[in-house]
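[Meeting: bench + compute handoff]

Bench side (C.D.) handed over the final construct sequence. Compute side (W.E.) agreed to return the predicted structure before the next meeting so the bench team could plan truncations. Sequence as handed over:
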Amino acid sequence: MHIASTIRRLGMAAITLVATATAALGIATPQAAAAPARDPILFVHGWQGSASNWDYMWSRFLGAGYSAGEMARFSYDSSQSNEDIALEVKAQVDALRAKTGAAKVDIITHSMGGLNSRWYLKNLDGLNFVDDWVSIGGPNHGTDVANGCLDASCEEMRPGSAFLAELNNGDETPGKVNYGTWWSPCDEIINPDQSTILSGATNTQTLCLSHVGLLSSSPVFDGVRDFVK
């Protein structure tokens, strides 16, 4: 018993000595990374768009206190299937979560970006990693304009397409994600205009704005910023 007690005392003394030396030398001890105060944001552009479509909103979010490290945007080949693009969305979400240490991200989309990101949510386990999701001028139920183009993703945007039928089957806003849409009664690309509206989402009608004009609207930004807070 005496020997065991002595060993325990020596062990405690050694631990105390190491801790004292570490503090004296100014050596930082490893600490768990703090969770970010808010969800980082991933921006997803639409058909034939690019990351630069988000310049206005990006700068406005910077002005609202977000850092560039809390946001991500990327460009993708919009001629491919939305199912393939959804895999890129997943990779972007995973990278942003790894970079920031966040459990979940917010996704803000324009036009067709709403479709591939919804596919990610519904079919690629995205419901577990997204908090707020936004569709700005999204063809969530198709658009007649897509009848005039021939690539894979454009065919999927046609009203009644097999892709949209599967995407909208059952609950249009599944899981615990907060869904929000913004649509314009003057959108020349989304026909009918109300195609953006999703059952179960917070749906907001904007002023008379063009399809691209939705991205540079101060009232739209204000609404989206407040939605993802």
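W.E. noted at the follow-up: Confidence is low (pLDDT under 50) at residues 1-32. C.D. will use this when planning the next construct.
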